[in-house]
Design goal:
By secondary structure, this protein is mainly α. It contains four helices and no strands. The protein has helices spanning about 40-55, 60-70, 75-95, 100-125.
Length: about 140
Amino acid sequence: MFCPKCGTQVSENDHYCPTCGEVLGARAKKQDLSDHTAIFEPEDIERTRILSALCYFNFIFIIIALLLEPNSKFLRYHINQSILLTVFGFICGLAAIVPFIGWVASAVGAIMAVVFTIMGIVRSVKGQAKDLPIIGKYVIVNYD
């Protein structure tokens, strides 16, 4: 929870902000740390959102996207998410080596990868930069 006035992190039991004295309660809000949309320029988002969505389909699109828009931070964010998704899929495929438990884990992972891919495509087309569940918080390609 964060103070709505000064942004200081507070516990759910606090009635007043320890920094500014603001009355807390229903006004205190939870901050979504997985949403990075605000750090990108709106023009960059609008220019590269479709190209960003294509990166989730195939690694070739990542290379093409980097050649077409090498300075786009929004595009690099989604390239990072796509590469993380590729690594996740590879690890799930490796799990299939182990009989029975590995097969189940691999199947569940494959379903998760499909769902995460759809989430990434939809978010990039909408111009959002939200981390994918479980895997999205890691950085392979720097987008800052």
